[in-house]
TrEMBL record:
Subcellular localization: Cell membrane
Top-level taxon: Bacteria
Topology term for the membrane: Multi-pass membrane protein
Protein name in the entry: Gluconate transporter
Parts of the chain that traverse the membrane: 30-46, 58-76, 96-129, 136-154, 174-193, 225-245, 257-278, 298-316, 336-365, 377-400, 412-436
Length: 437
């Protein structure tokens, strides 16, 4: 009965948005409340689930998304994105621009939280798409596939890092094996799969469609790259230092603070305000106007993302994930496949890759000695399962849809299938490694 309720909930949400043309946030709110009641959450607890879902989701995202939008708008308006795309095109050419973006996404994705990476690379994708008249989804998906893989497979991202601890795996070994699994997953889900998406007519947010500037008005190459990629550099440095410094102390506390995504973005915005704004001849008022326009562009994105958080919270508060996991745990199946399957089903139900991974680990970790598989491979298997078929209850689904301004159909056809390919290829890679380890 629980699975039927979840299925009907997802169908109702899709019909309200696509057929009924209801605003996505309102649709989420209506469906989430109905789902919570159907799953047995008491009337007086429903409002708290709504508020907690919004708060937990936006609490970790709102600063990053808003500041990321500000940086993206400034990078576009100042000509920095134009300069970066020109340099990349000269190095790789139009023929290999997907490879350039894919490699950039993978390098950025290793130290960067997914949502931070997403809002940072969107301006670059859109700049290339507008300047060279290339399909935005076609050139952007390989880069986003790289981000997704690093988010689900590789420490120090929250879910893989937590799984490493729960299964007593070695983080370095997990990272190395994860890279081996990630490479084919990214190639197949990125450049190869995107060949089928050239005809998707995406009209990305005009926020990033800045008019091309004359060469003389563009910021320098060093200024453009450093200002745009400063968050990446800061996170790489702070992460490396945190691993290198033993024990605890004031320096480690400071680095932890400086490595927080929100703090990183705030420092970046302060520096970019001068490097790409004031120093390029713009007044402070003009820069602030750019930031104001950027916030308007992402307001609805924030609401929709918060709506997906409400639905996820209804599933969590009703105990759905525990029920589903209990059903699957009794199946007689290869441990690595079982881990992938439990994570995939919970991901389908809840939307959150992190919740899916951690919930699965909570079920299987106590049985580690009976599983007879390499702990690092179990971490990767669960990580792959947690990425399976992102859809309407996942914040990433709505970020992609709204930023690229796609229909639900085209979002399923591109984003959801890409995530599924990453997940399935990841499992296959883990099973192949299992033969040799």
């Amino acid at each position: 009965m629980t699975l039927l309720i979840i299925f009907l909930c997802i169908v109702a949400l899709i019909l309200l948005i696509s057929w009924g043309k209801v605003n996505a946030f309102l649709a989420f709110l209506l469906v989430s409340i109905g789902t919570g009641l159907a799953l047995g959450i008491p009337f007086n607890n429903i409002p708290q689930s709504v508020y907690k879902g919004i708060g937990d989701t936006l609490g970790s995202l709102v600063v990053v998304i808003v500041l990321g939008a500000m940086l993206g708008k400034l990078v576009a308006e100042s000509g920095a994105a134009q300069r970066i795309s020109s340099v990349l095109m000269k190095l790789f050419g139009v023929k290999y621009i997907q490879l350039a973006l894919m490699l950039t996404g993978f390098v950025i994705g290793i130290p960067l939280f997914y949502n931070v990476g997403f809002v940072l690379i969107i301006p670059l994708i859109f700049s290339v798409a507008y300047q060279y008249k290339l399909p935005a989804v076609y050139i952007g998906l390989p880069m986003l596939a790289s981000l997704s893989v690093t988010h689900g497979f590789l420490p120090p991202h929250p879910s893989p890092a937590a799984l490493v601890g729960q299964f007593h795996a070695n983080m370095g070994v997990t990272l190395m094996l994860g890279v081996l699994v990630a490479i084919p997953a990214v190639i197949i889900a990125g450049p190869l799969f995107s060949q089928t998406l050239k005809k998707i007519a995406a009209k990305p947010l005009q926020s990033f469609a800045a008019e091309p500037l004359p060469e003389s008005q563009l910021p320098g190459v060093f200024n453009s790259f450093i200002s745009s990629l400063l968050p990446v550099l800061m996170l790489i440095v702070t992460t490396a230092c945190l691993f290198a410094i033993p024990g605890d102390g004031p320096l480690k506390t400071l680095l932890t603070f400086l490595g927080e995504p929100g703090i990183v973005m705030l420092i970046t915005i302060i520096i970019a305000t001068f490097s790409l704004g004031i120093n390029m001849g713009k007044s402070m008022q003009a820069v602030m106007n750019i930031y104001g326009e950027a916030v308007k562009d992402v307001a609805m994105v924030l609401l929709i993302v918060s709506g997906s958080g409400i639905l996820k919270q209804m599933f969590v508060d009703s105990g759905v994930s525990t029920q589903i996991a209990a059903i699957l745990q009794g199946w007689d199946i290869q441990p690595l496949v079982l881990g992938w399957l439990i994570a995939a089903v919970i991901r389908l139900a809840l939307g959150s890759a992190t919740v899916a991974g951690l919930t699965t680990a909570g079920i299987l970790a106590p049985m580690t000695t009976q599983l007879h598989v390499h702990p690092s491979l179990m971490v990767l298997s669960i990580g792959a399962g947690s990425l399976f078929f992102s859809h309407v209850n996942d914040a990433g689904f709505w970020l992609f849809k709204e930023y690229f301004n796609l229909s639900l159909k085209d979002t399923f056809r591109s984003w959801s299938i890409m995530e599924t390919i990453v997940s399935v290829v990841g499992l296959i890679g883990v099973l192949i490694l299992h033969v040799f380890i």
